[in-house]
């Protein structure tokens, strides 16, 4: 069972949330993501994609606070989704040392820079905000271990797509996991960029 092989802190949260049985998607995706491969994760709604995203990031980072720069990055479509995901994330991480930070685009970029410099393990943001921070030397991605994109269909928007390509070009080595309902041609094109040799999980 996928849940049995997750970090003990994650299993404790699942117990508190009374999440006992993994979905078909979680059974298929969690072992593949844990293997370190790049993965396209495709499943319909209510299959636990967001929960999987959170759990696999926590497991990858061993539920530990390390250093000062992000080791996981989650890209989302817009600011509202970033804030929603942050709120969900913190229900899982609140009993761990993991530092989760959302780059709220309504805040001044200088404030975002200063808060990120204080120390972050997991950064949640839109591609546009991350691109801006990179240009202003406001975030260092040299220690990034995992980049996840939630509801990746939004990459059909040219600005977001180009921003993601720009971000990945500044990363030397990293695991990439994309979550979506279906693998559309726009997402499949990413195999020519940073999703080379990606495994496909379809439920």
Automatic annotation (TrEMBL):
InterPro entries documented for this protein: DEAD/DEAH_box_helicase_dom (IPR011545), Helicase_ATP-bd (IPR014001), P-loop_NTPase (IPR027417)
Sorted UniProt keywords: ATP-binding, Helicase, Hydrolase, Nucleotide-binding
Record carries keyword Transferase: no
Classification via SMART domains: DEXDc
A GO molecular function held by the record: hydrolase activity
Species for this entry: Wenyingzhuangia fucanilytica
Gene3D superfamilies referenced in this protein's UniProt entry, alphabetically: P-loop containing nucleotide triphosphate hydrolases
Domain Helicase ATP-binding: 30-187
Keyword Plastid: no
Name of the molecule in the record: DEAD/DEAH box helicase
Alphabetical list of Pfam families matching this protein: DEAD
Domain of life: Bacteria
